[in-house]
Design brief:
By secondary structure, the chain is of the alpha+beta class. The protein has a single domain (9-50, 62-341), classed as Beta-lactamase (3-Layer(aba) Sandwich). 35% of the residues lie in helices and 16% in strands. The strands form 4 sheets. A 9-stranded mixed sheet has the order 1-3-2-16-15-14-13-12-11, sandwiched between helices. Helix 1 (20-33) packs antiparallel against helix 9 (296-309), helix 1 packs parallel to helix 10 (318-328) and helix 2 (69-82) packs parallel to helix 5. The longest helix is centred in the middle third of the chain and has 15 residues, at 157-171.
Length: 342
C-alpha cells in the first residue's frame, strides 16, 4: 500500500483494473442531473485515479464537512483508548464530576460507548438549543431520557460534543489541538479550523478541511490506523468502531463509533459530504458538495460496478471529463452562491 506525501501518486484506470467507460457515464450523469458537487477524489490502494473540482474550487479549498467531523472525534477517542487514558466502558459522569453536581440519576449508567454509538437515550438532540451563557454539561446531564442508555439509537450532535469534551478533560487540550499532535501531523495534514464553544471543539460539526485531507483520513482508516510504519490509532479500536453496533430505523444503515456502516464504511455530513472507505476494493472515495438529492448512487452504480467489471478499452479520456465537469459546474455553483449568500 502506498502512502502519500503532499499529494497522492497517480494511477490509471487500467492500472486500477477499473472500467473507465462507467466513470465516463458517471460524469455524464452528474452533468445531466445538474448535481451540485464541489469536488471528488477516487483513491485506489493509496494512488489517485482521479480528482476533480467544480468552478471556484481547487485542491487548497477547505470546506465545512459537517458531520464528517464526528468520525475524526471517534479517532481521537480511539487514540486515548490506546493510551489507556479512557475506556469505552467508563461512566461519562466521571469526567464531569467537578462541575456537574445536579444531574438526573439515569445518567449514572451512561458510558462512553453510548456516546460513540448515539444510544444516549435522550428524547431529542438538544445541542442546537444551547446558548453561549449555558453550561453545556449541566444541560446535557439534565436532559430527559426516554430510554435506558445503550438501547435506542437517536442521531445526537450533543453526544459527539461530549466526546470532544472528554478529550479536553483528559488531556487539558482542545480536541483540535490534541489531534494536531497525534493525527494531523503524523499523516501530514495541515491543522484545520474547527468550530468551538467555550474552548471545547464542537466534535459533531464545523471541521474545515480539504478534499485531499478527507482522502488521507479515509486512507488511514482503510489501512487499519497504520500510516507508513506508525500506528496512529489501533486496529483493535477501529475494528470495534466499524462494527454494526446499532441499526438506524427504517434504513439499511448501521452505526458504529461515529461511523456509518453498510457494505462499506462512511464518514458522512450534511449536503452530501462523504468519505467512503471500501475494503472490498481497497478504495477511498471523497466528496464535497452542496446537494440535497441522493448522490451515493454515483458510487454504488458507477464506481463499484467499474471495479466489478474491470478494465476494458475506452476511447474517451477521463481527464477530458474532469475538465468538462469544472466548466459545466459554473451555472450550478453560481446558483448556489445566489441562494446561500444573495
Amino acid at each position: 500500500m502506498i502512502f502519500p506525501k503532499a499529494d497522492f501518486n497517480k494511477k490509471s484506470c487500467k492500472e486500477a483494473n477499473l472500467n473507465k467507460g462507467l466513470l465516463v457515464d458517471m460524469f455524464n450523469k452528474i452533468e445531466d442531473e445538474l448535481h451540485n458537487i464541489h469536488s471528488m477524489m477516487l483513491v485506489h490502494e493509496g494512488s489517485k485515479v482521479f480528482e476533480t473540482y467544480a468552478h471556484a474550487f481547487n485542491p487548497e479549498t477547505k470546506s465545512n464537512v459537517y458531520s464528517v467531523s464526528k468520525s475524526f472525534t471517534s479517532v481521537a477517542i480511539g487514540i486515548l483508548v490506546d493510551m489507556k487514558l479512557v475506556t469505552v466502558e467508563d461512566p461519562v459522569l466521571f469526567f464531569f464530576s467537578d462541575e456537574v453536581k445536579d444531574y438526573l440519576p439515569e445518567y449514572e449508567t451512561l458510558k462512553v460507548k453510548h456516546l460513540l454509538t448515539m444510544t444516549v437515550g435522550q428524547e431529542k438532540d438538544f445541542f442546537s438549543e444551547l446558548t453561549p451563557t449555558e453550561n453545556p454539561f449541566e444541560v446535557f446531564f439534565n436532559a430527559p431520557l426516554t430510554s435506558e442508555p445503550g438501547k435506542v439509537f437517536l442521531y445526537n450532535n450533543f453526544a459527539s460534543f461530549m466526546l470532544s469534551a472528554i478529550v479536553t478533560k483528559v488531556t487539558g487540550k482542545s480536541m483540535n489541538d490534541f489531534l494536531n499532535e497525534y493525527l494531523y501531523k503524523p499523516i501530514e495534514m495541515e491543522k484545520p479550523l474547527w468550530d468551538s464553544i467555550n474552548d471545547y471543539t464542537f466534535g459533531c460539526t464545523g471541521l474545515q478541511i480539504s478534499l485531499n485531507d478527507m482522502a488521507r483520513f479515509g486512507h488511514l482508516v482503510l489501512n487499519d490506523g497504520l500510516w507508513e510504519n506508525k500506528q496512529i490509532v489501533s486496529k483493535a479500536y477501529l475494528d470495534e468502531a466499524l462494527k454494526k453496533h446499532v441499526a438506524e430505523p427504517g434504513t439499511p444503515l448501521f452505526y458504529g463509533y461515529q461511523f456509518w456502516i453498510h457494505n462499506y464504511v462512511m464518514a458522512a455530513g450534511m449536503y452530501k459530504q462523504y468519505i467512503i472507505i471500501d475494503k472490498r476494493y481497497n478504495v477511498v472515495f471523497a466528496m464535497q458538495a452542496y446537494e440535497e438529492r441522493d448522490v451515493l448512487g454515483l458510487y454504488n452504480n458507477y464506481i463499484v460496478k467499474a471495479f466489478e467489471k474491470g478494465w476494458e478499452y475506452c476511447e474517451y479520456s477521463l481527464r477530458d471529463f474532469t475538465r468538462k465537469f469544472r466548466y459545466n459546474s459554473i451555472p450550478v455553483i453560481e446558483k448556489e452562491k445566489e441562494e446561500r449568500y444573495g
